[in-house]
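quick one before i forget lol
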Amino acid sequence: MREHGRCSSRGSRGNTPGAAPRLFLQTRRTGAGEDPYMATLGFIGAGHIGSTLAKLAIAAGYDVVLSNSRGPESLSSLIAELGPKARAATTQEAAAAGDIVVVTVPMKAYKSVPVEPLAGKLVIDTNNYYPGRDGRIPELDAETTTSSELLQAHLPRSKVVKAFNVIYFKHLEEHAQPAGSKERRALPISGDDAQAKKTVAALIDTFGFNVVDVGPLSEGWRFQPDLPAYYHRHNAEELEAALGKAKRYAELNRRD
């Protein structure tokens, strides 16, 4: 298998779907000292992936703040469906409210993601580059960078982790299994901050999946669209093998 950065299964044996890992218990300073509280997840984008992840987060005990490009009013029916632990906001408000923020917008809109409210925060990037939808982005076509690296460059003071981009939104609920299940599906992540990746891995484990850490954001190309790791259901061992088979698009096109 070709070298593709550190690659390991990080499914914790101590968590089951719906149980909040201790890693997500944050603390905030009050007049009485340190007060523990559950992290809030902010969402910039509330389409299929965003709304499904919000549902899973609520089931695990988190509050969520959702936003989209059309404004809070357009989310009223979704908020009613999700219940009292969800609220709608502007993108600026969702970015400010989230302890962890999920960016799930089309690649062509990544520069619209607010920068200042996300400074110092963990940002989960679910995006994929689809030229037919997003138009041509020369540096991605040339494979001199990756989609998540572009978002990281746009958010220089945030800690971006690429995750949830290889799975069909309905499968986020349908394929979840308890920790320790032999054929538990694994999802890949990449990122440049080790602690941020541990946090995202714990969240994914809570949602019912194992995790394969592919390495830095620059290695995120290994689970882009149309490559072996993309969209297929793999356990951790199978996913590592699929990641090792990844070829650059230019190499695949030469073969064609």
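fyi Residues 1-7, 9-23 have pLDDT under 50 and may be disordered.
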